[in-house]
Every structure is written in structure tokens, then in C-alpha cells.
Predict the structure.
Amino acid sequence: MGGRETRKPAVAAVLLLLDVILVSLIIIYVPYTKIDWDACMSQVDGFLGGERDYTKLKGDTEPLVYLSLFFYAYFVIQFVTGRQVYPAHKF
């Protein structure tokens, strides 16, 4: 039983490294689409406009599925980038 416990950090580190590699490859080789940006920004706009009923917050492509911290994080990104998708993509 002790052997399994000592391997957990090593397995977690390997999985984290694989995740970093996979995400890096996706960022490099998969073209970015603006669809999700527009949906997220419309949801943030609704929230910043005072809507607090999550069932009424919908984006261009989907209903809201994020926690409230999402709104604050995207508000900061929206503020820093001036609502422009390409500077945000480099964020």
C-alpha cells in the first residue's frame, strides 16, 4: 500500500507534463475560432448588465455553463484587451 502512495506524485507530474505538451501542440497547430469568444463575451455582458439568473444568461452558441468566477476572469480579459479577440488569444 505504501508503494502506491509514493507513486502518486510521479504519476501526477507525468500527467501534468503530457497535458502541457498536448495543450501546446493544440495552440500551435489548431486554428483559433472566434465563436467561443463571442459567446463568452455576450454572457459576460449579460452578467455585467445585472442579470444574475443563470438560466437567462446565454451566449451565441450555448447556454451558460461556467461558474461565477468565469465572469470576473473574462471581465479582466475583456478590460485588458479592449474586447479584441486577437490580443486576448495571446493572453
